[in-house]
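User: Quick sanity check before I run a bigger batch. Here is a single chain. Can you write out its predicted 3D structure?
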Amino acid sequence: MAIVDMQKLSVSAERKHRKAILETLQAMGVMQIENNAIDDPELEKMDTRTAVTTFEKNADTLSDALKLLYQYSGKKKPGGLFSEKKEIDKAVYEKAIQSQTAHMKKAQSIVQIEKSIEEAKARIHRDEDRITALAPWMKLDIPMNLRGTKTTRALIGTMPGILTEADVIEAASKDMTFPVPLEVTILTAEANITYVVVICLHRQRDQVLENLRQAGFARPTQVEEGVPSEVAENLQKDIEAQNLQIEKLQNRIASMADATDDFEITSDYYRTRAEKYRLLSTIPQSKHIFFLEGWVAKENAEPLKKMLEDKFGALVELEEIREGELEPTLLRNKPFARNAEGILESYGLPTHGRADPTFVMSIFYVIFFGMMLSDAGYGILMAVGCAVILKKKPRLEESLKKMLQLFFWCGISTTFWGFMYGGFFGDVIDVVAKTFFGYPAELTPILKPLWFAPLDDPMRLLIWCMLFGLIHLFAGLAIKGYEYLKNKDVVGFLSDVVAWYFFITGLVLMLIPSDIFASISGTHYVFPDVVNTIAKIITLIGLVTILLMSGRANKNWGLRIALGAYDIYGVMNWLSDVLSYSRLLALGLATGVIASVINMMASIAGGGFFGAIIFIVVFLAGHTLNIGINALGAYVHTNRLQYVEFFGKFYDGGGRPFKPFKMINQYVEIKEEKQS
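Assistant: Done. Predicted structure follows.
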């Protein structure tokens, strides 16, 4: 477990080498560049916002074009949870970049074609909406916008309710004493609305219209120019034409499917350039010189310094850390522990001078996860699944690869604890044997636990869980002690670590022979008198040390004793922390009980062919759900035991991640050239 030592570098070089130096540093990806501390009013900085925006826009255009190519060409789109980057030769990369302008024009044409497709689809939607709106008017044999003739007026519209011609005539001629010649046509009546055409004399038009309005008459909101049936026919022809146009445009896009690789390379290239120009805006420079500052791993400092000086004639200085400056944190662990770095980063990275708890945490993480899931069948599935993905997808994102490797080991741990507890998809072996092969139910289980079955003796497992928890907490306290000794604080080590070891260990040794513990464990332990005496002595030593030394920073002895007494009260936190490890029991039991219930439900139909079909269906569905729910629960609660109980004894995070200036590769990776 180690935090990589960092070195601050300052670089000054001729401005003519700026582009080459930045590209070299970006390709190497070993330096986190920070120019915040360089504040000289005589130095200028470039405004690269336009360039950054342009490069990002180009990259987005290429990405959009890629999506369209995969959508219309039928090619399998890379992506998904376990997607990996394509590995290409440097020559292929450089060839694609040389034609970047052509690739951009092609991508822009694809995006423009898609706009045309969307416009055609929008036109189809409009046509369909118009056809739908015309449906009630299809019996109308005159144009909808017809106002009438020289002597007549046509009133086309809707009225509320289901009406007859007589109803409409009555409403239209209301309070009119002179003869009212009217021609009424009911086109359709639906949804409590009647669609009508009323033709009246021109001189009676105003009174008839007023009467109709009082009866709820309203003109259509959308009036087409022409006979509705003819308009609908023309709209349908337009829809067919637009569909043909869409098909042609889609085929045009599909014909350019061979450009996907070039688009991916060029998109990554533009994102990398955007990153470079974003950094360029922070670089102070004069007319002839530019300046850089940043962090590299200490082991890379001298080689990088020599390379920049020899190749570009730069002046590179190794600087001391300034007061109040926080070095970025880069973790370096062995392969097993490295997989758990993401768990630690989610909580917070350690600062320099502190211990990296990843190695110790990773061991307990794998053990506790396995105890919570605790089914050999589930563990085998998890381990094999992760191994297959890692084998078939060697170029996964680093964070995802670490997570899969961690869950591989969690699967191994789950398998181990499953056999220790006698769980393999619950009790499926016994259920299958009894249901389909007539194995006598009264005989002992076929798969016997290597240790014991938690369902038969849960209190025994509870005691072991609390013991494992105490060991976990003591490990956290040990890391705290390591930090004290690393900083040569022997007093702190004795007062804040050894004293608590004595106090807690003594209390535990005094608790085990007690009646309270016997009632919980079901077993009464008797220690020799010498052990009981030692327990009391170390408890007293720890108690007195904590009382007198916890508040040692205060010269006032009254306040010092009060603070010590308050810290002693913290033993209640230890008790609650230890009890938290009962979740190892709870989740382990939950997995086993639910698995057994699933097996019981699957076997309800009995033996035979039909019973086997039912068993397989219920088994697959039930155990898939069970492993999903309980694996998630194991993940969440294992994290909690690290973040709350374990880290609570010594860890406070506060570090910032090391983020080197590097290439942005979303789609491809360039093969490393082999050294001859």
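Residues 6-96+256-329 form one domain.

User: Great, the batch can go ahead then.
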